Automatic annotation (TrEMBL):
Listed InterPro entries: LITAF (IPR006629), LITAF_fam (IPR037519)
Residue stretches making up the LITAF domain: 44-128
Biological classification of the source: Eukaryota, Metazoa, Chordata, Craniata, Vertebrata
Cross-referenced PROSITE patterns: LITAF (PS51837)
Keyword terms, alphabetized: Membrane, Metal-binding, Transmembrane, Transmembrane helix, Zinc
Signal peptide as annotated in the record: none
Family the entry assigns: Belongs to the CDIP1/LITAF family.
Cell location: Endosome membrane; Late endosome membrane; Lysosome membrane
Membrane topology: Peripheral membrane protein
Residue stretches spanning the membrane: 82-105
The protein, known as: LITAF domain-containing protein
Organism per entry: Sinocyclocheilus grahami (Dianchi golden-line fish)
GO molecular function, one term: zinc ion binding
Recorded superkingdom: Eukaryota
A Gene Ontology cellular-component term: cytoplasmic side of lysosomal membrane
């Protein structure tokens, strides 16, 4: 008589979707999710974006094209052309005076400026338009 030992994955597909996020550490605006599988612990590091043209509208890890250091960009917002245009349109359509102030309060209409925290160089501006 032979004995068989069968090991089954307990109903779940492997792959990142099947992994349970056990810990989510937030550090300097980034989420570092930790996953457990058995006795192993995985953690996925935030992606380093090497092409500054691909920088998102929030702080991201990249290589500074000026000082060549790996940095997390400092972001700030400023009212960009989109905000001014929305303001202009609301004036043209004779909205109530308060309307033209609203675009300046909306981050979505603002340009996002990425700067290097090390050398203070201006890396990229993400324009709304
Ligand atoms: Zn730099």
């Amino acid at each position: 008589m032979t004995h068989h030992l069968n090991i089954f994955m307990s109903g779940k597909n492997l792959g990142l979707n099947g992994l349970k996020c056990v810990l989510n550490i937030k550090l300097r605006g980034f989420h570092y999710p930790f996953y457990s599988y058995g006795s192993c612990l995985f953690f996925s590091a935030p992606q380093v974006i090497l092409d500054v043209e691909q920088l998102p509208r929030h702080s991201a890890r990249t290589q500074c094209p000026f000082c060549r250091q790996y940095i997390t960009t400092d972001v700030s917002t400023k009212a960009g052309s989109a905000a001014y245009i929305v303001c202009l349109i609301s004036i043209l359509f004779c909205c109530i005076a308060g309307c033209c102030v609203i675009p300046f309060c909306m981050d979505r209409c603002k340009d996002v400026v990425h700067k290097c925290p090390k050398c203070r160089s201006h890396i990229k501006t993400c324009k709304k338009l």
